[in-house]
Amino acid sequence: DGRDDNLCEHFSVVAQRLSVYTAKDYADLLEFLVTRWTVGDLTGLSETGNKSRDYICNLSPRIRRLEER
After folding, report:
1. Which interval of the chain is the signal sequence (predicted)?
2. Mean pLDDT of 37-63
């Protein structure tokens, strides 16, 4: 919005407190996009690229575990 550098973070906090957009929603969306974009199948990446791919591919399960706490 040009005024709040943390707008997305603030939206996320409010949405989660209102239970309209939860960690489960984030995990579901991330899982959908990783699958849709076949991120796990990316090859020919640098070492940093491979680490980043692995991080993104494992992020959804990590979010789900945090949600269960």
Report:
1. none
2. 96
Nearest to 67 by CA among 59, 56, 39, 48: 59
End-to-end CA distance of the chain: 33
Please identify which residue in the block is written with the tokens 């269960």.
68
Cα–Cα distance measured from residue 25 to residue 32, given in angstroms and rounded to the nearest whole number:
10
The pLDDT confidence band at residue 11, using thresholds 50, 70 and 90, is confident
Q: For residue 38, how many other CB atoms are within 10 A of its CB? A: 8
The model's pTM: 0.68
The structure tokens listed for 41 are 């199948």
Q: Residue 38 — φ and ψ, nearest 5°?
A: 45, 45
Kindly state the tokens that stand for 60.
């959804």
Cβ neighbours, 10 Å, residue 43: 7
